[in-house]
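Sample 1 of the test manifest.
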Amino acid sequence: MMDQQFHLESKDINVWFGERHVLKNVSLQFPINQVTALIGPSGCGKSTFIRTLNRMHELIPSAGLAGAVLLNGEDIYGEAIDPVDVREKIGMVFQKPNPFPTMSIKENVLSGLKLSGRKIDNGAELVETSLRRASIWNEVKDRLGEPALSLSGGQQQRLCIARSLAMGPDVLLMDEPCSALDPGSTRRIEETILELKDSMTIVIVTHNMQQAQRVADQTAFFLSEDGDPGHVVEFGATNDIFHGPIDPRTNEYVNGRFG
Amino acid sequence: MSLQSPTIQRVKLRNKPSRTADKVFFGVARAAGYSSIVIVVAILFFLSIRAWPAFEQQGILDFTFGSGWDTTTTPPTLHIGAMLWGSFLIAGIGVAFAIPMAISIAYFIEFLAPKSIAKTATVIIDLLAAIPSVVIGLWGLGVFSPTGAGWAQMINQSLGFIPIFQNESGTFLRSPFIAGIVIAVMIVPIIASITREIFSQMDKEVINGAMALGGTRESILRKVILPTSAGGILGGILLALGRAMGETVAIFFVLNLSYDEVNWLNILEPQGGAIASLILSKFGEATNDEISALLAAGVVLFIFTLIINAVASYIVAKAQPWRKA
Ligand SMILES: Nc1ncnc2c1ncn2[C@@H]1O[C@H](COP(=O)(O)OP(=O)(O)O)[C@@H](O)[C@H]1O
Ligand SMILES: [Mg+2]
């Protein structure tokens, strides 16, 4: 009876901005302990889709939605579900590092607990484990009280990952987390992703085909053609998408011939 | 190697405008900049000359911090302490009422309201800021005072055990409380409009980040938006405070000036002060001594207002730590 095989699952997700239909019937399954990459040309709706997965989408005033997102079998858009609880379980890392500018490194790590009004016991320990899991502990352990903005861009992004991890999420959503970073920082974040997937489900939007192949177990290719709403052209094991795609459009895209 | 010159020739960098139009613009801007300083200093200087006899006759400290206004003594007693404190007290009450109001308005416009409503509200706020203070004063006198006195009485009945809410006179009109609320009405638009501007400059990605961490509207406002905007909002508050301190007519209509005794904190009593209102009320039939004293009061007010404005611009200038690193 219980459909527990997929940790997170979208069912026929459709999205509108005002009258404009931008996503059509997106149904993807995200198994636990796997990384799923979302790829596709700019403007095909990847960010829009990933934002539906933790109800960030509904913050846009003109946004409309149809379909369901199931976390452990339960619709996160259900009547009785508080979006704030959803976002605590499903963390998100953004394209541009966005640490809280008035807070120190340590305060940033604990910020989610404060924002959601949770009690903080063992703050120091939580700060350390979160920063360790985001592979930034060694760089910042002697300067936890310094402003977060004193860090480099790559460090700021890993701090933002640590900040999400401190909430103990089951799922981590990442929308082009490396697109503003240098190659070294990018590689470290990829390593972090591979370590984290042992304990959670990860969804990552990326424009970098190598990155998708390095980190993702499965890949979904999104496309929006001639102003039609974006949809999933092909979804499967990363290896198949890159080396044996069924759809010719997938083949063209992953080989860099458009987008 | 033969190409190497013995000394390195430094290129002359242009730091002066070259084109004529630029030069003219540069000159005009510079002249305007300097003249504003000259004007301020000149006003202060000429006021001080006329004010000097009063400072000399009364003594600067007694004049500024003592109390009493009596032309029948020899020499006359012309002290403005009660008025000076009153200016601060009323401005403080005004700001205390205005801050939560203004921040709520700014938050609503910037983060809650649909676009069309936000635009309309912004225009209305700016219009409110432009209402002449005499109109607000008349509103305060004719419309608000009775209501405000009713509120004051309620506060006195329920919280009268707290000293500042005591009232022995039995009348609740023309008190610092009422004058403070009238001032609040004047400065809410100023603070709201500056706060809205500061909110609008906030990095929306930072707010999204807070949302994604399970923040609620209330916790995000308190823990992210306000700390980030605090410096700028404070600058706006100080600007408004300057306006409140200098306000004349509106306060004159709704406040009972009491020259002889400082009303420290009994905000519901019909006794208060305000330098600008003092000047307005006495100037018409002033003796020579009084005229000098009123000008001296103007100098004191001017200096305090300058200090507040200087602090305001310093804080506003420093308060942008959220700018991209
Ligand atoms: N807030 C919004 N309001 C209106 N249209 C939007 C908004 N956000 C995105 N869109 C539109 O939705 C489509 C998908 O955008 P997005 O999800 O950002 O694409 P991607 O992340 O794949 O580049 C685009 O056509 C974009 O213009
Ligand atoms: Mg995007």
